[in-house]
């Protein structure tokens, strides 16, 4: 069952107007015909202007592949089906040359490990100038002035820094530089961030978090943030998509997700988080390992670890993304199939 | 470091005093003229005690020296100054053969589960390695011990014949834990054992450590950058910044009422999984490079409470409340009852 | 079962790019499933067979001179005859034994010595033994091969060399000289591999639970260093064969009546100017084909045994990564 029917089910007032970008029915399989490695199965998502969306998942969930697909960075042969509409074009049908004008200019990207993204052999200034000139050939006041302004916005003191090499900067500073390049070299309406703070210290992460909030507010960019850190999603985003085994298993507004998680995976995951102040008693943990799309067999891929199994239907049929009836929240769980479980609906109930 | 009521505990297993480790750097003329440091002070003057059966959590960010401290404590890296006593024996004075024997009483679990095991050997061989290194038992005797260790780590018997490439990160970390336990050690050092794991697996491993602690009465040094994880396991917590301990005390007290501004900032910076609770303003600035630590209190450039004395004199680590120590001029010391 | 115990049914392990069980299986499957490697393997097996059993099955006595001198290939003589009327085909078969023996033998010796020296250097990295050893390797590396080996080998021609009380044949001297020249490359591979493995956390863990030095080397280091060494051997054997052929071509190698491919080439050197191609082309072809076979094997082995190449390949396959150094999830 594809998720395109769910758009109608999202309820009134949730989304109006043309989306900035939309992914429909995306399926990606890596490897080769003899040893296929499925990564995404029929994933659809919608990104509205100025909206911040978190894509949350563990290893094998497919979240990184989804982000790369939005930027059309996944090689064409691996894409089984689906489309990524940005503006009025399907990015997956464009040629590399056309994509190069979109990436960096209209879509900004920030990756996990800033050290890997800068060439250690060239100065920061050299690399930044190249990126800026690529997307803004003739800025007023000169490229260096543009770069200086961008660095100010991200909290890096530009004075004399452009002549330095990447190894002279800390991880946090490099990440800020990458964000500067992503947000200011072009005029992106969409920022894609893949685990941007995972390799940073907690205090640095908090600073980057604050900075991203400000930038979004000032520039009005939409943001798709891929992370395994649910707390980060809570702090930065408007809407959260939870992925498991290559599919979206829950979609909700951020307040709803944390107050009333609908999918058993989300509920169990939230319970697994150690928080401060320390809760009394044992930390909840769910059994087993996270499944990836390649593990998906018959039935719901989460069934082996689920503590809210409905019955035989969970092992037989994979549930589609169904509305829970609350604020357009969606969950891929049979409990929200009114035909299956009219009285056992979990929606609206506080997490156990 | 004294604890509650100023009593010295009699069952101290690991006793670290004044431990320092610095890495000398080659100096150029420019360095000497510019008065740049001649060495990186990775660990400076650390005192730490761990009693039998006690879990001490060591918290810090990058540059704090927490991993270096662990390695120096185990004498995997030679210290520059200070002493480490294990069950009364001075580790640093031992000869290689004696050191090896004492190492049988310590176990180590490292951060990266994939790098911590020899990928060419099956699980049973990996877990049996410590037994072989100490020539314990015959082949037949080793088998059951390996099985027992695997079971304790939550791996069913079928795993013994698998190879690392077939296991997930969480399963590999359990193999590492089994290997650390196979010699029935008294003391385990865990260096960021959950940092590379998925969230759902992290909870499993935290609970595993809690169970092991309860069942085996292990003394443990649990190193992490995440106070929330540590709070589930530690009896006491020490916070490190730029190679020094800036605060230490009972886990509950430290978490509830942190004394040192850095600890407070650290706790405040942790994002909460609750959109209604927006995180507080993080500390400004960044962690200074260990190459050029600030004079006086290392935290003063970022500290909201910084006073002029903080710039010139380093605050000593002293008791501010019962069993709770902090190195900060702004926090009044505990009154010593005469 | 507590929730801390791993539930086997929940997940069989990392999915997708699964390696077959043991490292040995992976090597075998890599060799058997790639058509080029399989070709190489069969080719080498054929050569070994010829070397072992060929001389017994050769149509003619390779030393038998006859009056049919310099006859082109025919049904009677598949590769023609040389200027003394000897059957080239039979000589080629017998030559296989010598060429392969010298090639494989010298490589094996170089691997053993170089591998050991390289590991020792790597373990003492940065300190005196390492510097001394590696500078010695640099010196040897600088020897001009086609001066050094012919000189040593030539000195043994017609003379009885003794290693202590043991007489050493000229062939052995030749093999020994070639192996000396190959020692540095194996030492470098072993040293680099040792350095890389020493940084791995499992070595630190092993020291932490009190492993002895020799245990570390034998159990942990050796299996991981052996891989790159094997790959290097697969590429060095053909080089050794070429070196032997070159030295013999110069006349300093195996002496008549024994013949290796290089000798046959040497004999045919003048013939080719007269248009009699068979005495040069066949040995040359044999050398080319041998080199190809071993290279195919080496390529396949490297794909399996070189950890960095494998890691990149796995990442690329699993994530379709396009960026160099990109680490997928």
Please sum up the structure shown:
The complex is a heterotrimer of chains A (352), B (338) and C (329). In chain A, 30% of the residues lie in helices and 20% in strands.
For the structure shown, list the relevant keywords.
heterotrimer; A: 352 residues; alpha/beta; eight-stranded mixed beta sheet; four-stranded antiparallel beta sheet; 12 strands; 30% helix; C: 329 residues; mainly alpha; MetI-like fold; disordered C terminus
As an assembly, this protein is heterotrimer
- Rounded radius of gyration of chain A (Å): 21 Å
The helix content of chain B is: 25-40%
Largest sheet properties of chain A: 8 strands, mixed
Q: Count of helices of chain B?
A: 11
> What order do the strands of the largest sheet of chain A run in, or round the barrel if closed?
6-7-8-3-9-10-12-11
What is the average per-residue confidence, as pLDDT of chain A, rounded to a whole number? 86
Mean pLDDT of chain B: 87
Number of helices of chain A: 12
For the largest interface, the chains and their residue counts are:
A-B, 44 and 48 residues
How large is the share of residues in beta strands of chain A?
Answer: 15-25%
The chain-level structural class of chain A is: alpha/beta
The level of helicity of chain A is 25-40%
The major sheet of chain B is characterized as: 8 strands, mixed
Strand content of chain B: 15-25%
Low-pLDDT windows of residues of chain A: 1-14, 348-352
Write structural notes for this entry.
The complex is a heterotrimer of chains A (352), B (338) and C (329). By secondary structure, chain A is of the alpha/beta class. Chain A has a domain at 118-185. Chain A has helices at 6-9, 63-70, 96-102, 114-117, 124-135, 143-153, 171-184, 202-219, 230-236, 254-259, 264-271, 312-316, and strands spanning 21-32, 35-47, 52-56, 79-86, 89-90, 107-110, 190-194, 222-227, 239-244, 247-253, 322-323, 330-331. In chain A, the strands form two sheets. Chain A has an eight-stranded mixed beta sheet with strand order 6-7-8-3-9-10-12-11, sandwiched between helices. In chain A, strand 9 (239-244) and strand 10 (247-253) form a beta hairpin. In chain A, helix 7 runs parallel beside helix 8 (202-219). The two termini of chain A are 29 Å apart. Chain B is α/β, with parallel strands linked by helices. In chain B, strands 6-7-8-3-9-10-12-11 form an eight-stranded mixed beta sheet. In chain B, strands 2-1-4-5 form a four-stranded antiparallel beta sheet. The longest helix of chain B has 18 residues, at 199-216. Chain B is globular and about 65 Å long. By secondary structure, chain C is mostly helical. Chain C has one domain (40-59, 78-310): Orthogonal Bundle (MetI-like fold), CATH 1.10.3720. Helix content of chain C is 67%, strand content 2%. Chain C has eleven helices and two strands. Chain C has helices at residues 23-33, 35-57, 88-123, 128-142, 145-156, 170-199, 201-208, 213-249, 261-267, 278-305, 307-319, and strands spanning 161-163, 166-168. Chain C has a two-stranded antiparallel ribbon. Chain C is globular. The two termini of chain C are 30 Å apart. The B-C interface holds B 71, 74, 76, 99-104, 106-108, 110-112, 115-122, 129-130, 132-134, 154-156, 158-159, 162-163, 165-168, 170-171, 174, 176, 179-180, 183, 189, 204, 207-208, 211 and C 2-6, 8, 11, 13-14, 18-19, 21-23, 200-202, 204-212, 215, 219-220, 223-224.
